[in-house]
Amino acid sequence: MSPSAVASLRLELSLVQPVLWSASAHMWHSDPGLPGRYRRYLRAMHQVIRASVPLMERAAARCEALSGDPVARPLAPYLRAHAEEERGHDDWLLADAAAAGTSPDELTGAVPPPQVAALVGAQYYWIEHCHPVALLGYIAVLEGNAPAPGLAPRLARETGLPETAFETVRLHADLDDGHSADLDRLIERLPLDGAQRSLVAVSALHTVASLAELFDRITAAPTEGESTDD
Known about the structure:
The protein is mostly helical.
């Protein structure tokens, strides 16, 4: 008997997720540069998360256009409902940035780096030119790697920033476990063919790699006031 779609996806992710965990650990390392890295994290995550609802809405619209598609039919209502659950989360990041002493304009006006474009942009390609089910791989990684429950209070303690600067980290630690369980149940009941299972896996693996590269960029960027030769 072949493994379930969820089991196969989790197995493939288990082989690459240590790269993401390592990048995350370096980003959250306790040292004097942590406050600056956290502010850069807020900016990068705003650039990523503000794309979440438009991505899901576009994928849902593509599903609805695929009349008679047995995967698209149950996928569309899931995406519509999940888009509503995620709506406004980018505003949480703006509020966190303000509490951390960063003008929200610095987030909304910043040019996203190539790592953000690669992370999000690949999903648009797969939605438009393959099948919108690809987005489930992206969602699986983002929600399967939610912040640890103790991260927000640790960051507040070690950065000296107010606790109100960490609301998004805290809320996603609370919310994303339930979302991951909902996603697993959806994947199990979708009648995915071999190509669609591969597409979800490729999307997930790409998301891990791109997110790790983004975290590495946040870690490597100079702290405010430092110089760099790059």
